[in-house]
Every structure is written in structure tokens, then in C-alpha cells.
Amino acid sequence: MPFSRGKNPSSIKVPGKGSLGVMENQEGVHSKRSSPQGGVKKRSAFVDITNATKIQINNQTKIGKPAKKALKSKEAAKNEANLKEPKAVCSNGQSMKLEVGLSPEKDLVVWPQEETTLCPGRQVVPDEFDIDKEFYGDVSMSAEYAKEIFDYLREREEKFVLKDYMNSQPDLNKDMRGILVDWMVELQENFELNHETLYLAVKLTDHYLACSVIMRESLQLIGSTAMLIASKFEERTPPCIDDFLYICDDAYNREEIIAMEINILQALQFDINIPVPYRFLRRYAKCVSASMETLTLARYVCELSLLELQQVPERGSRLAAACLLLALITKGLGGWTAMLEYHTGYTVKELTPLVKTLRTMLACPTDDKLTAVTTKYSHKVFFEVACIPLVAVQTLEDALIEQQVS
């Protein structure tokens, strides 16, 4: 656990029942997560989570020996036919026949190289804009379809556009939301969760608040449950419910978290694959071969925007592009290139208002008491990017105008 059982992790109170704890900053030293109930139960793969064994027993009792032989021969013939004529399916549903051979050196299946380009309808990326060509052939990267994947994510953004929902919440205000998100940032750090988990959890929280009127007593319950759902979606080993009960200082019980999990999933119709700006940011940084320090500076701006209610309606792809542009100008590394415009779909003119808003956010935060993000990115692990001086307003405007002209 992130804390010893004897300590009370809560020092910031959320309005109402729960308490949002300010986690102890261990200066980059993270403790591994462990379940209060002990280690994970060992089991054989798929044995105790399927009914495969029961089906096999039932089939043995119901099917006689002659029927078994006939069924076996029929399946064998079908498998043999499939092996003789292997087929693959293109993205448009059209099947194509592949000629399979064996490598004389290693007795491995050899697939013809030209088959990777047989699928009609695949988007052809101009060679000068192809940032994935070095990974072609690496099945773990899906480089041949990377551009299509991110174009699809941009299309999905339209489904998840939100408006300022706080006027429909009579018992909440933007300050309460800011306190909750600040606590979720600390939660992500102490549980050593992926950054995607944090972004998705905040998105889930906003979408649920946009369609459900809730009382302030349930705010921390919603935030912790959203983090639980996001962890299940993003993490290999997500925290268990007991971890979230403990981190909420036992303000809620197991049944309340499970019930809230059901409510959130039903409200979102179980569609929780929401595109988050963090994914776009890493993709866009690759277009200019940005250093880790420059990328981390953009990540700092992007994560700080999670606290701002006015950024809730913003599309993740546009927010990521604006954060990267601000980071490039701050570091004096030039600006928007043709490569970035091709992969992001945004021009400097389209990003200029948002870049100026983000610079104002850095200079004058809405609530200077919410310091989780700033403290996090002031550490040397994150290159102390929160301590980098802000770019001057005139310098920023001159750079944006110059890039629009060019």
C-alpha cells in the first residue's frame, strides 16, 4: 500500500462525506502496490473462469462413439481445407488468398512481403511525412496502420464532446471539481498508474457529471470509482477495490463503489474508450523528434489543463497540439511544421487562441492551492519542467504571427 495503516492520509477535506488526502511526496521514490487481502490467487489459465470443462464432460456423455468419430473426421476435413487455402481479411472485409511457404532454414511460415499492401482502401502516407516507416514489419507497433488509427481516434472525439455542465449541478461548483482532479493526480502517482489512466478517469468523471445530477457527498466516490474503471481499462495490474476504500479513508464501502461503477458504465453505455490528449501528444511529439524534456513540458501543460473546467469541452487532439506548440515556442525550438500540420490536421491559426489560453493558465492558475501537478513536474524525474520560465507574451505572439505568415 502507498501508506502505512497507522497513518491518516487525508488532510484536504472534500465538501461532504469523503476526504481527499494529500499524499506524501516521496521525492520520486514509489512503493509498490499490494492488496490488503494478500497476493493474487493463482490459477491455471482459463480453467476456473470458463465452462470449458463442463462442456467437454457433457459432450462426452451425450455423444456416442460413432457420432464422435463422424464429428472428428468432419472437423479434420474442414481444418485441412483451411490449411490448404489460407486467407486473410482486409480492412474493407474483402478476403484475399495467401500463398504460404516454409523457410528452409528455420521451418517457419513465410508470408509474402507484397501481401501487406494488398488491402485496397488503405491510406497511403507520403514518404516525406511517414514517421512510422522504420517500424514497418514490427507487429507490436502496427506501424502500417498508425495514421489510420489516429484518424479514427479523431473521428471518435466527436462522440465525446462535452459542454460546461456545472450549471446543471446545483450542489457542485468548479472549485470542488478542481480539488477532486488534484486528488486524482496524487492518486495516480502513489499507485504508480499510467498517465493514460489519469486522463481517462477525469474524462469518465466529467461525462458522468454531465449526465447525472449528484450531491457533493458523492464526488470523491465518483472520482475514485472512475479511477478504478480506468485502471481496469488501461493497467495490466489495476488496484483492487480495497485499495480505493483505504485511500478514501473508509468514507465509503465496497457496495457503494460497485454500485457507482454500475451507474457510471450504464450512463456511458459501456463505451469508455474515450480518446485522451496524452495519446495524441506522444504521437505529435514524434513528428518533430522532440526530446523527452520538450515532451514532458508539453505533458505538464496538458496535465495542468485537467484542473480547468473551461478545458472540458476541448477536443483532446487539439489540446495536445496546442500544448506541444507552446512547449516548442517556450524552448525556442521553432514551431509548427508541415509534418505536424499533416498529422494533427490543425494549422497555427486554428491553435493560436488555445495556445494563448494555456499560457494564461500557466501564469495565473484558477486556484493556486491546487499544487499536485506543479509539485509533480517540479521533480528532477520530470526534468523540473514546472520551473522553466514562461515565454514572454510578446515573444509568444510574435512567434505565432510569424508562423502563420510562413
Automatic annotation (TrEMBL):
It holds the Pfam family Cyclin_C. GO terms for biological process: cell division; mitotic cell cycle phase transition. Residues 182-266, 279-360 form the Cyclin-like domain. Signal peptide: none annotated. Coiled coil: none annotated. GO terms for molecular function: cyclin-dependent protein serine/threonine kinase regulator activity. SUPFAM superfamilies: Cyclin-like (SSF47954). InterPro entries: Cyclin, Cyclin-like_dom, Cyclin-like_sf, Cyclin_A/B-like, Cyclin_C-dom, Cyclin_N. Residues 275-391 form the Cyclin C-terminal domain. Keywords: Cell cycle, Cell division, Cyclin. SMART domains: CYCLIN (SM00385), Cyclin_C (SM01332). Residues 1-44, 64-83 are annotated as: Disordered. PANTHER family: CYCLINS (PTHR10177). Belongs to the cyclin family. Cyclin AB subfamily. Essential for the control of the cell cycle at the G2/M (mitosis) transition. This is G2/mitotic-specific cyclin-B3. It comes from Oncorhynchus mykiss.
